[in-house]
Amino acid sequence: MLRLGNLGYRTSLLAINVGKKNAGKTSVTAIRCLSTTLSEADKKKLSGAEKLLEKLAEEERMERKIPHWSPTAPSDVRPSTAPVQPSKILFTPGPLTTSYYAKLAALHDYGSRDHKFIKIVKDVCEGLLDVAAVNKKDFTTVPIQGSGTFAIEGVLSSVIPKKKGVLIIANGAYGTRQRQICKVHNIAHTFMEFPEDAAPNLDEIDKALQTNAKDHSHVAIVHSETTSGIINDIEAVGKIAHKHGKSYIVDAMSSFGAVPVDFEAAHIDYLVSSANKCIEGVPGFSFVIARKTAFDASKGS
After folding, report:
1. pTM of the complete model
2. What average pLDDT does this structure show over 68-93?
3. In Å, how far are 81, 217, 269 from 208, measured between CA atoms?
């Protein structure tokens, strides 16, 4: 982790290669930055981080002997599979700059019933469980052909019993979006809103679950609130939810793969994330890592 000051932004070095156990060195290192305004001093720090990233990327390219083809080079001096090098590194929470190998994989077409395609999906699902560091006997991966919000909507509209509801803990726009989803789907919910520059109050959460214990079957929270850069204490909240016998939903869209998550310590039943964030994949694909017992219990919801 590379930290550049203590503002409303967070920077991290990430090296993850999902499903490639023998790939050798780590994949391309990405720097992600969440920021709206920077002082001149912090801009210098950020510039230094960008230069470091460029140096690391160049060292990896030389080590792997990846050709640095120019997209404008004549076709007779470069193979048709040559990667198009980005003009600059993407400094956003997502999508991120994709590696050479991610781009190369997109050049192949597979049928949905192709044995190779089925194996790829299986490898991706198992690779995500490896990144999550969970017991594969207890958890499963549900790949979803849609955005991160699509996956959040899928979980909220699928696992909450019709006569129950969800306690939504929010301190930013993405927590608020969960409330909007529940309104559209007519899902009973209690919305606990906290300041965007502060962590949720654990005592208030505990009290809310005590007061409305029969109304809620689930608790939902955002791990890394992208709009503010705050990392919420999902473990502390998860322990409170578990104490009250609630199933726990975590939106880890911009944190999974970069910020360690202990599923057992946090008692997480559903963790939702996206391919185009910390695992450096392409947009349009999301996934849910679900505890099998909770997943099976949701049938008929």
Report:
1. 0.73
2. 54
3. 57, 13, 20
Beta bridge partners of residue 231, listed in sequence order = 224
Helices (H), the chain: 40-64, 100-105, 115-132, 148-159, 173-184, 202-211, 234-243, 263-266, 292-297
Burial profile 169-185: b = 16 or more Cβ within 10 angstroms, e = fewer: bbbbebbbbbbebbeee
Domain 115-297 fold is Aspartate Aminotransferase; domain 2 (3.40.640)
Give the side-chain half-sphere CA count within 13 A for 134: 27
Joined tokens for residue 279: 């695992």
Q: For residue 289, list its beta bridge partners.
A: 141, 271
Query: Residue 235 is encoded by which pair of tokens?
Result: 């473990």
CA distance 219 to 278: 24
Tokens 């306690």, located at residue: 167
Tens-digit pLDDT profile for residues 87-139? 567 888 788 888 878 888 888 888 988 999 999 999 999 999 999 999 999 99
Q: Pick the residue with more confidence: 207 or 70? A: 207
Contacts of 118 (CB under 8 A, 6+ apart): none
